[in-house]
Write a structure and sequence with these properties.
By secondary structure, the protein is an alpha/beta fold. It has eleven helices and nine strands. Bound molecules: phosphoric acid mono(formamide)ester.
Length: about 325
Amino acid sequence: MMENHKTKWTKKDLLGLRDLSSDEIELILDTAKSFSEVSQRDVKKVPVLRGKTVVNLFLEPSTRTRVSFELAEKRLSADTISMAGGSSSMTKGESLWDTIANIEALKVDLIVMRHGSSGAPHRISNYTKVGIVNAGDGINEHPTQGLLDIFTLREIKGKIKGLKVVFVGDILHSRVARSNIWGLTKLGAEVVICGPKTLVPWGIEELGVKVIHDVKKALDGADAVTLLRIQMERQNETLFPSIREYASTFGLNTELFKYAKPDAILMHPGPVNRGVEIESALADSAQSYILKQVTNGIAVRMAVLYLLSGVLKNEK
Ligand code: CP
């Protein structure tokens, strides 16, 4: 798998796209391309992680990411254990650090971790030899989602450099937006951010993006539009008048989507709130690649697990 790529993978963890070079991002995407063929086979399995153990530690709810990681691990022939916060000894007062130390004592190779606090996987990674894959930390990053979004875009458009990619929605609380911004700008895309002023973080332009609050102007000439849901679970205060008003201004429908290029693609990391950030008919339209993103997530996660396991093997 990708032995001849110009870049070698050297990191034991995947914590965010902020930490990766453009070559490292391309190595993951190219490796994922070779793994996507495995999921087309009758027997969807390769032995590259045979004898390795992966623990999925999800301390926040998840459908796509958790199932996708579990399938990726099984398709690579790894032994896997999945734990949710409510069923772990953290409910009895054990710290995250002690939980990770105990998992390490059980001779696990990789931990895939989702945590509600930004930076939690980064702190843990300093204290353990186990490889850590960030499956979403607070509002910081969701690197495998960013990678699968970029993979999908590259697969359909054939390139990333020079594309105009627009993100509409709750950018303030979106780890998906941050991972996409780091990755897309490193690969040369033009990134536009659109949402209510209260849901766009101050200073985000410093990451190399343009902010346009008017949806029609933001969509003008877009090659791809990614919609983000309002993350109510992360909002303690009122940041917009009502869901109804938000939907009428920033909710995307078939008519508004015409402001993008005729061959523009629509993406969404999920979960989708139909009738809020997206009209149902648009979500199910031919220009929507929402389910293609989900399918591509398996190949991308297989690539990440494969590359990290190579580093852990060399360290032993
Ligand atoms: N995209 C995403 O992270 O979805 P889940 O929360 O269902 O994993």
